[in-house]
Amino acid sequence: MSALTPTTQADAVGTNRWYLSAAPIIRALVHLCVPMAAAMIVGAVYNVINAGFIGSLHDATLLAAITFGTPLLGLVMAVGGVFGVGGGALISRLLGAAEHEPAKAGEIKHVSSFALWGAIITGAVLGGVGLLLLGPLVSVLGADSSAIAATSSYVAVMLAFVPVLAAAFCLEQIVRAEGAARQVMIGLIASTVANVIFDVLFILVLHWGVGGAALAMGLSNLGVVIYFIVWLQRHSENVSLSPRWFTLSPAVLRPVFGVGIGELLQASFLIVTSLVLNNLAVAYGDSALAAMGVAVRIAQVPEFLVMGVTLGVLPLLAYSYGKGDRERLRSALRVSAITVGGIVLISAVTVFAFRDQVFSAFVADPSVLSIGVTILTAQLVAMIVNGFTGLITSLFQATGRASAAIVMSMAQGVLFIPIVLLGNLWFGLAGIIWSLTVSEGLVFVIGVIMWLSSRPAIDRGLAEGNAERAEQVLEQAAT
Q1: Fewer beta carbons under 10 A from the terminal one: N or C of the chain?
Q2: CB 144: neighbour CB atoms within 10 A?
Q3: Phi and psi dihedrals of 325, rounded to 5?
């Protein structure tokens, strides 16, 4: 039974807190996951449209420049993720715990302020260092002589907006932590629409190329930062973004970094794997790199739909765990797994069936088309297991299982590097393309093993929450 009374439930219908605490699981998942999935699909569609804008300039080096810049963008998102994912998971757990221990809600101000300002400060430092070392950085990213100029332009503008991009991702997690998935959807879709408008202006009208694409991304994310800040200030009862609540208390740092560090490690390994991938693929020409860039963006449409579920359910899992509601956590996990399974099968079959038509809509070059269809097929196969891997990772983050989340984040990179090197040695370009699929499958197996071994610890945490809630009920009865 929920800690909310029936009268309170009636008054709370339509509020984000009610969906986390007491709404039927399917209704809660629809509220949390559908807006998240919609926003991520719009974002994925934008990535495809953006590739189309760049592709309309008929210069493969420009598409290659975006591919080279992808690892850096992953690092920027990870900076926001360290503070946002770690802080958001802690905020949701505190909200759940506050049902039987109201004082817990007071800690949320410290968590949210630390998360936002930590992301901004860290982003500013990284962006400044990156601009100072722009030349060496572009070379490390793998750009060859033909793509150095375009890659430098794209990366330089992106680095200037690192604090904004990190803050945008961090704030998204904080808003989601309160169950406000609809508000996240509004912010992300509005940002995507603004991004498209800026793309048209900067790329097609002003002809600023990939530099214009990076500028469009930065300005649209600045808009979403403003939107999230205004919404939180007006509607959140617990979150505060004021610097006066900033703290370096171990009670905040340990749980935030314990979960968030997994995001950073995952991004770091993503950078390493992308660098290895780019440097191996560059030997096969710009056509291979361009095909990878387009194929990844097409595959992101179904992938982001799955991520909408795995990320959308995280606040519900964390809230249920903090509250000590074993049945609600298990029901949310079970229904989410069924949903992910249905999505990946339907999406993979549909995109695979029309892979030639979809890819040819964005690239006319026969050499790029042939390679791209193979890459897209490998991406779709990987997506089938990757959805369940994401759900397991969300469970670890929601329940504060820092070690398990870190292992999941490291596993893909640790496995991918030897697999891709051997794949290139034995099978050439085909080995490079399918190496990510093989490593994703192995990560899933590791995740299942760790989930089974973590269940006793998760059950103990739920039991502690149940004990605190029972104690509160007895105290209320005595008074």
Answers
A1: C
A2: 18
A3: -95, 90
